[in-house]
Design goal:
The complex is a heterodimer. Chain A has a domain at 64-300: Orthogonal Bundle (MetI-like fold). Helices cover 73% and strands 2% of the residues of chain A. Chain A has helices spanning 2-23, 42-64, 70-76, 80-112, 116-131, 134-147, 172-198, 201-209, 214-244, 257-268, 271-300, 307-312, 315-318, 325-338, and strands spanning 150-153, 162-165. In chain A, helix 4 packs antiparallel against helix 5 (116-131). Chain B is an alpha/beta fold. Chain B has helices at 45-52, 84-91, 109-119, 125-138, 154-166, 184-199, 211-217, 235-240, 245-254, and strands at 7-16, 19-29, 34-38, 60-65, 68-69, 72-75, 78-81, 94-97, 172-176, 203-207, 220-225, 228-233. Chain B has a 6-stranded mixed β-sheet, sandwiched between helices. A 4-stranded antiparallel β-sheet of chain B has the order 2-1-4-5, with helices on one face. In chain B, strands 6-7 form a two-stranded antiparallel ribbon. In chain B, strand 4 (60-65) and strand 5 form a beta hairpin. Classes of the chains: A mainly alpha, B alpha/beta. Chains A and B meet through helix 8, helix 9 and helix 14 of A and helix 2, strand 8, helix 3, helix 4 and helix 5 of B.
Chain lengths: 339, 255
């Protein structure tokens, strides 16, 4: 039945082109490329030239100014004290962000949980830590060991059973990590929450219908899908954290990049070159992070953005396997054996 | 085997706020029976289906699956709400297929099918994979195990979703308008899988708009409107000779 039909189709085609050809002779020739004068943007060029000139003037001028102390910049940029301090800054960032992501994830899940107690705790935490400046929080964590010199366990207002000296908050590095992580966690939890909410409700429903618990649903279904929403702003937060570490001076911790460069300049009376040195190191790190973020974002967009992949793998080809009769047959036999 | 019904609903009611979605649904589904529910949108069909596996809480009446009360435990004459874990345990016996498939997009077809058996039933990966491969073959997708849902057509996705539900070895399968989100040319392949499943003796409740399917496969056809069962009986009888005015009006629009 299909054969004569296709024959007719083939017959019909040359006729159709012939008719079209009679109408317009030029139809057979390949379409002529458009040759046109592109739209010009003279002002873009003018502004660009002016800006480049301005920048050149600024650089030439800065190179001559003694206040910048370029020789000092060269002298200190690879100074051991500076590179060690840069290392400290890097680890502060890493530890604080790990803490922040873990606590933030917990807070976000608590806020979305059906348990009203957990919900309120998370809300209260975010209210406090997002509502006060990080600098103030760091000052507080710096003096917390004076307020609570010992940790005690027991019934309030009676003799404590156990007394542990507060050694956590006398270690300034740990104090800094805790202070930064606790503050950042409040922001991370909002990022995570947005990610979790972005996952279609049907996903959790399907998971529940498969008898998975709420925790399993979160862990295996919702969180993995939320990652691609969570990753980009988290990269942003890492970059932001790297720079926020300079505020640990409030604790006061002074072994980080900014603290050490400030310490050196206090002795040498050359503040500007050391600010430049610190800035160059911060820029180096943020540049590396930007590259890393790019690759992580690519990795976590798996399973989406498949529009491209769809074009590569021909979906129409898969349709013939879905011939109505075919799946029915194995189903009938197999199922028959079972029942 | 036993004469006890698989699903027994007695005057089941459900409210969303002041909106009474179900106003006393009573029906029985025997083991191996295929029940199709039809009716206009907003008639409470889907809600009733979701009550059966406790995705929605029943507010009134009694609803039990395989002799067990859904979502509650009766002790003396008092009812106790089940713990989440216990409710999840009840759901193991009930498979559900959704209108919009709801496959997990970050997992391959095979991983979609093995996830719950591994995590909930504690099956080994190898065992679950073997079983999942078998199920995917059964729905005609033996070669698609490694594909992500976005690579599959709607009909293929829905068939994976059916395999995923079957992987938990349910006694009862619920279908919530399984073909409504499909392109017309893909409806047949899903219905064929469902027909095969019905033939195998699976107890099924199917909310559908496919009257042809209902006529061919259903043992009982239920027409629901405004939260009540208006008419129920053998599909041929209801489709050709509806007794109730509302049924007549509905059928005249869809047939």
């Amino acid at each position: 039945m299909s054969e004569p039909k296709s024959d007719r189709m083939i017959e019909a085609e040359p006729g159709a082109t012939a008719r079209a050809g009679r109408k317009r002779d030029a139809d057979n020739a390949p379409p002529e490329a458009i040759v046109a004068i592109p739209l010009r943007h003279p002002w873009r060029n003018v502004v660009a030239v002016l800006l480049v000139l301005g920048l050149a003037v600024f650089i030439l001028d800065a190179a001559q100014r003694s206040d910048y102390g370029w020789t000092d910049v060269g002298k200190y940029i690879f100074d051991r004290r500076i590179s060690q301090a840069a290392w400290v800054t890097l680890w502060l960032t890493v530890y604080a962000m790990i803490g922040a992501i873990v606590i933030g994830l917990l807070l976000a899940i608590m806020r979305l949980s059906p348990n009203p107690v957990l919900k309120s705790i998370a809300w209260l935490y975010i209210w406090i830590f997002r509502g006060t400046p990080v600098y103030v929080q760091l000052v507080f964590w710096g003096i917390v060991s004076l307020i609570y010199p010992v940790f005690t366990l027991g019934i309030p207002f009676t003799e404590p059973w156990v007394t542990i000296p507060n050694e956590v908050f006398t270690n300034l590095f740990i104090t800094a990590v805790i202070g930064l992580a606790l503050n950042e966690a409040a922001y991370m939890s909002e990022i995570v929450r947005a990610g979790l909410l972005s996952v279609d409700e049907g996903q959790a429903e399907a998971s529940t219908a498969l008898a998975m618990s709420w925790g399993q649903t979160m862990r295996f279904v919702v969180v993995p899908q939320a990652m691609k929403i969570i990753i980009p702003p988290t990269g942003n937060e890492v970059i932001s954290m790297l720079k926020t570490t300079s505020l640990v001076a409030a604790i006061p911790l002074s072994i980080d990049l900014y603290g050490v460069s400030r310490g050196i300049s206090a002795v040498t009376f050359t503040p500007v070159p050391l600010l430049l040195v610190a800035s160059l190191w911060y820029l180096l790190f943020t540049s590396i992070l930007m590259v890393g973020q790019h690759f992580i974002e690519k990795r976590f967009s798996r399973g989406t953005g498949r529009v491209k992949a769809d074009k590569d793998s021909p979906t129409p080809e898969t349709a013939p396997t879905a011939v109505p009769g075919e799946p029915g047959a194995p189903l009938g036999t197999d199922a028959g054996g079972k029942g | 085997m036993t004469d006890a019904p698989m699903v027994l609903a007695e005057r089941v009611s459900k409210n969303f706020g002041s909106n009474k979605v179900l106003r006393g649904i009573s029906l029985e589904v025997d083991p191996g029976e295929v029940l199709c529910i039809v009716g206009p949108s907003g008639s409470g069909k889907s809600t009733f289906l979701r009550c059966i596996n406790h995705l929605e809480r029943v507010d009134g009446g009694r609803l039990s699956v395989d002799g067990q009360l859904v979502g509650y435990r009766q002790k003396g004459d008092k009812l106790y709400e089940l713990k989440l874990k216990e409710a999840a345990f009840q759901r193991q016996e009930i498979g559900m297929v959704f209108q919009r498939f709801n496959l997990f997009p970050h997992l391959t077809a095979l991983e979609n099918v093995t996830l719950a058996p591994v995590r909930v039933k504690g099956l080994s990966k190898a065992k679950a994979t073997a079983r999942a491969t078998e199920l995917l073959e059964r729905v005609g997708l033996g070669d698609k195990g490694g594909a992500y849902p976005a690579h599959l057509s709607g009909g293929q996705q829905q068939r994976v979703a059916i395999a995923r539900a079957l992987a938990m070895d349910p006694k009862l399968m619920l279908f919530d308008e399984p073909t409504s989100a499909l392109d017309p040319e893909l409806v047949g392949e899903v219905l064929d899988v469902m027909k095969g499943l019905a033939k195998s003796g699976m107890t099924m409740i199917v909310v559908t708009h496919e009257m042809g399917f209902a006529r061919e496969v259903a043992d009982t056809l239920v027409f629901m409107d405004e939260g009540v069962v208006v008419e129920a009986g053998p599909p041929r009888q209801i489709l050709s000779d509806p007794q109730h005015e509302r049924t007549k009006a509905f059928l005249s629009k869809v047939l």
